């Protein structure tokens, strides 16, 4: 984070305001031996990179088959959660966004990645020229507690940043409900149940 701030700090000595955007993207669920990294990659954190530099082919096969007694079964990650810094002011030729961290995980896994990024951003703001303004997540139930906590701390004057949810996320879910089909089972807009068959183009 500090390096990303320094690249954008030639603005006359002023503070560099930034926000974090955190969301997950789907990845193929595959475990693979990478010759470049000399590691098995593709597992959920903390088994996302298992070093195999000094292991035999049979030992590597045991790990891939989930039969290594020391490691056990390695679950392939189904998504990668990514944190991006977004800057309000960037010098010409420098992107206003920068990927700073990623964590392979299971589908909608509840973990401490968001809190870790929030704590790191606060720490950078206290010691450098960066000014942490906000973090935004997609607002699914497993992440809402981080937003609630950040808002409560901000409103209690215990923090200088807020947490928010992506206002487009619910719209994407609504659009998916309309196009996914399946009658009216589970299809809603707010409190109202929709019969999706009314929207069919027959």
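^ Assign residues to that structure.
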């Amino acid at each position: 984070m500090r390096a990303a701030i320094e690249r954008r700090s030639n603005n006359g000595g002023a503070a560099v305001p930034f926000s974090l955007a955190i969301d997950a993207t789907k990845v193929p669920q595959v475990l693979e031996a990478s010759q470049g990294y000399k590691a098995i990659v593709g597992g959920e954190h903390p088994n996302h990179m298992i070093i195999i530099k000094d292991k035999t082919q049979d030992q590597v096969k045991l790990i891939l088959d989930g039969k290594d007694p020391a490691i056990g079964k390695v679950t392939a990650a189904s998504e990668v959660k990514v944190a991006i810094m977004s800057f309000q002011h960037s010098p010409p030729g420098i992107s206003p966004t920068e990927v700073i961290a990623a964590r392979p995980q299971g589908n909608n896994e509840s973990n401490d990645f968001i809190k870790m990024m929030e704590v790191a951003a606060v720490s950078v703001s206290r010691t450098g020229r960066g000014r942490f303004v906000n973090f935004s997540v997609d607002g699914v139930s497993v992440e809402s507690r981080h937003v609630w906590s950040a808002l409560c701390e901000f409103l209690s004057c215990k923090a200088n940043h807020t947490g928010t949810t992506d206002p487009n996320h619910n719209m994407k879910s609504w659009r998916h409900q309309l196009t996914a089909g399946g009658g009216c089972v589970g299809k809603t807009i707010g409190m109202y149940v929709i019969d999706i068959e009314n929207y069919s183009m027959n």
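The beta strands are 16-26, 32-34, 39-41, 49-51, 79-87, 97-105, 130-137, 162-165, 188-189, 192-193.
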